[in-house]
Amino acid sequence: xxxxxxxxxxxxxxxxxxxxxxxxxxxxxxxxxxxxxxxxxxxxxxxxxxxxxxxxxxxxxxxxxxxxxxxxxxxxxxxxxxxxxxxxxxxxxxxxxxxxxxxxxxxxxxxxxxxxxxxxxxxxxxxxxxxxxxxxxxxxxxxxxxxxxxxxxxxxxxxxxxxxxxxxxxxxxxxxxxxxxxxxxxxxxxxxxxxxxxxxxxxxxxxxxxxxxxxxxxxxxxxxxxxxxxxxxxxxxxxxxxxxxxxxxxxxxxxxxxxxxxxxxxxxxxxxxxxxxxxxxxxxxxxxxxxxxxxxxxxxxxxxxxxxxxxxxxxxxxxxxxxxxxxxxxxxxxxxxxxxxxxxxxxxxxxxxxxxxxxxxxxxxxxxxxxxxxxxxxxxxxxxxxxxxxxxxxxxxxxxxxxxxxxxxxxxxxxxxxxxxxxxxxxxxxxxxxxxxxxxxxxx
Length: 444
Known about the structure:
Elements: H1 8-17, H2 21-27, H3 29-39, H4 41-52, E1 59-63, H5 67-83, E2 88-93, H6 99-103, E3 109-112, H7 118-128, E4 132-136, H8 142-150, E5 155-160, H9 173-182, E6 184-189, H10 192-201, E7 208-210, H11 215-225, E8 241-247, H12 249-265, E9 270-275, H13 280-293, E10 299-300, E11 310-312, H14 319-323, E12 328-331, H15 344-348, E13 353-355, H16 363-371, E14 374-376, H17 382-398, H18 400-416, H19 420-437
Parallel strand pairs: 1-2, 1-4, 2-3, 4-5, 5-6, 6-7, 8-9, 8-12, 9-11, 10-11, 12-13, 13-14
Helix pairs in contact: 2-3, 4-7, 5-11, 5-19, 7-8, 8-9, 12-13, 12-17
């Protein structure tokens, strides 16, 4: 294959958009954090390369944009580390929400992915000298992928997932990104439908395998690693506890109204709310919403010394551990257009799961509903949705047999999906063996 490069239109679009990011940062704190993090990432990665890169050892570079995709990569990274403790592992991400997650992955170096420019990718290839470049889910960057190809570095996709209505399938995105997908050496798709859509993006159908979703392995690993003396266990012991994870304002309005009604008849019920973005402004808003509906006053996790009716989590990185102390779970994101968050973590804990009406883009939610391990609220107004949630919540509390049965069905979905991480790790091993068997091309 001739040495590919991204289109001039792709490069021009990125060049013209970069000066706008500082202005966008003024209006969006998350964009600002990401922009500032990327500003120094190239230098930090180059410093690590000079001081710690061992050229006599293979280095596998994983990239995942945010925490959800990072969970898919995590189980593969764990298996690569177990099988090859001498290999070096690098990890980059795009979203600032993945900072804490990346620091705890156990890789040799983790940082933001610098902007996808020709100069930055050339310098990254020289600094890291990877043996394989692995993109998770779909977040492939054309400049980086084609630079790796020109350097003789095989490019892979793991946990390949393409939603039916993904913007990447539409013009002009498909044309702009096609050069990157064309250089993929191996791709592990989650399903046959995802495999077909990866081929539409430009990946050679002959290099695509259907291996399943390694996120199932990641969440199972987390549950197995949970300690029996988990310090958060006190917040769920002795009472029916709903853990509401990754919530947004639309979720919270429904949750808190339902809880206020439920608590009148079931004062023993507890609710743990874990906002997707626990900023001070968001936490204050939840407190006001709770007061408006007449809920018990929320107590923040940082100030809680024991069980309370309504616990408001003001830290990040502990949601998976909190699900393990619940009797049932609510997963946020189903009341707005950004997408439902992961339903697998609570399912792996063996508890039933409920979520909002906009779940159709989530394969995992569909699997839970089909198996009877989850429930979806109907597309109704917030008052009616709260009424429906209250009825389900009360039934789960009063009918322990039903709740336990749905929890077992949820866990069975996770158990059935195990094994993709091992297959993906083997795929990467084969790529590294191929790359190290022949000399790499000189950087261009």
